[in-house]
Design brief:
This protein has 7 helices and 2 strands, in the order αααααββαα. With about 180 residues, it is mainly alpha-helical.
C-alpha cells in the first residue's frame, strides 16, 4: 500500500457508531427537527467521503491491476463526496448557528459547489485535476490544488459563521460545532 489508511478506517468505524447512536437514541419526532436531519446528512456524507477515500487509496496503490477508467471514477467520486461533506457542513452551520441566513451567500455557495462538482465530473475525461497511467500511476494534473480549494473555502465560511455568532451560542454548542471543523 502506498497510503496508510488506518486513520480513515478508524474514522469510518467512528462515523458508523455515531450514525447507529443517532438512529437508536432519537425518536421519530426528534429526527424530523431540521437541525437533527442536517446532522444525520453530515454523518452520512462524512462516512461516504471516508469510504471513497479508503477505496481510492487502495485502487491507487494497486493501479497496475485496476483499469485506468475505474481509478479515475473512484478518485473523482472521492473528491465529489469530500466537497459535498464540506458544503453540507456550511449548510448545517447556516441552519443551526445563524439566526437568519443570507440568501445571497447561500446561493453563491450553492453555485460554487455545483460548478465545482461539474468540473470534477468533466475532469474525469480531460485529466486536469488528476490522471492515471499504467506505468506512472496516479499523477497530478495542472489544476490539482484546486481540489482542496473548495473544501478549504467551505471550512473557512463555516469558521466565519461560527466566529460571528459565538456570543449568541452556548459554550457546549460552540465547542461541538467548532471542533467539527
Amino acid at each position: 500500500m502506498i497510503y496508510n489508511i488506518s486513520f480513515e478506517l478508524a474514522s469510518l468505524f467512528f462515523l458508523a457508531i455515531m450514525y447507529i447512536n443517532f438512529v437508536t437514541q432519537y425518536s421519530r419526532e426528534a429526527k424530523k427537527v431540521k437541525m437533527n436531519r442536517h446532522f444525520k446528512y453530515l454523518i452520512i456524507l462524512g462516512f461516504m467521503a471516508n469510504f471513497w477515500d479508503v477505496l481510492s487509496a487502495v485502487t491507487i496503490s494497486y493501479y497496475q491491476s485496476i483499469p485506468v477508467w475505474a481509478n479515475m471514477i473512484i478518485n473523482s467520486v472521492y473528491f465529489i463526496f469530500g466537497s459535498a461533506f464540506a458544503y453540507s457542513f456550511v449548510s448545517y452551520v447556516e441552519k443551526t448557528v445563524l439566526k437568519s441566513v443570507n440568501k445571497f451567500l447561500h446561493m453563491f455557495n450553492l453555485c460554487v459547489f455545483v460548478i465545482y462538482e461539474i468540473s470534477i465530473v468533466i475532469g474525469i475525461f480531460f485529466g486536469y485535476y488528476v490522471w492515471f497511467d499504467k506505468v506512472l500511476g496516479y499523477q497530478h494534473g495542472p489544476l490539482y490544488l484546486l481540489l482542496f480549494a473548495m473544501p478549504l473555502y467551505f471550512s473557512f465560511c463555516s469558521a466565519v459563521y461560527i466566529f460571528a455568532q459565538r456570543a449568541q451560542m452556548n459554550r457546549r454548542k460552540l465547542v461541538a460545532t467548532a471542533s467539527y471543523l
